[in-house]
């Protein structure tokens, strides 16, 4: 079973994401902030990391550093939840992360499922 780390601070959105991803057959682990995300990234391997860009800036900066270190040991795709397309460049410009996919709020469950499945299928082909 593919394991996805969901980094999101909105409890309602966490439940929505968890429901969609579990319905698609994925194992999800949750982090409410950058500190929890860093701990999860140190202790576990993930097939995908799903990040909400609305986390506090300090958490995002420190978390981005840990994501890069984790990717050096075992590459995984990053999918970022954003509020608008203009925010896509912020991920690379501000945090030095290369997101494999973006999804803009509001999004449909079908769109999220399609993008996650595509990312994980591409990864499976690369492994």
How large, in whole angstroms, is the Cα Rg? 13 Å
Strand content: 15-25%
Class by SSE composition: alpha/beta
Described by strand count, sense and barrel closure, the largest sheet is:
5 strands, parallel
Strand tally = 5
Average pLDDT for all residues: 85
Number of helices: 5
Shape: globular
Q: Which regions have little confidence, pLDDT < 50, spanning 5+ residues?
A: none
Q: N-to-C terminal Cα separation, in Å?
A: 15 Å
Helical content stands at: 40-55%
Q: What is the element string, with H for helices and E for strands?
A: EHEHEHEHEH
State the strand order across the main sheet.
2-1-3-4-5
Task: Please give the oligomerization state of what you see.
Answer: single chain
Short overview:
This protein is α/β, with parallel strands linked by helices and 127 residues long.
Structure description:
It is a single chain. With 127 residues, the chain is of the alpha/beta class. Helices cover 52% and strands 19% of the residues. It has five helices and five strands, in the order E-H-E-H-E-H-E-H-E-H. The protein has helices spanning 11-23, 34-43, 57-73, 88-95, 109-126; strands at residues 3-7, 27-31, 48-52, 78-82, 101-104. It has a five-stranded parallel beta sheet with strand order 2-1-3-4-5. Helix 2 (34-43) packs parallel to helix 3 (57-73). The longest helix is centred in the C-terminal third of the chain and has 18 residues, at 109-126. The protein is globular and about 30 Å long. The mean pLDDT is 85.
């Amino acid at each position: 079973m593919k394991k996805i780390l969901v980094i999101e601070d909105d409890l309602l959105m966490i439940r929505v994401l968890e429901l969609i991803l579990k319905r698609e057959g994925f194992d999800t682990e949750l982090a409410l902030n950058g500190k929890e995300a860093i701990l999860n990234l140190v202790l576990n391997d993930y097939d995908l990391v799903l990040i909400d860009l609305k986390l506090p800036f300090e958490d995002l900066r420190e978390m981005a550093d840990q994501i890069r270190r984790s990717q050096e040991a075992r590459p995984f795709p990053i999918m970022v939840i954003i509020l608008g397309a203009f925010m896509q460049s912020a991920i690379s410009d501000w945090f030095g992360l290369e997101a494999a996919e973006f999804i803009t709020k509001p999004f449909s469950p079908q769109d999220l499922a399609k993008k996650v499945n595509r990312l994980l299928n591409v990864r499976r082909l690369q492994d």
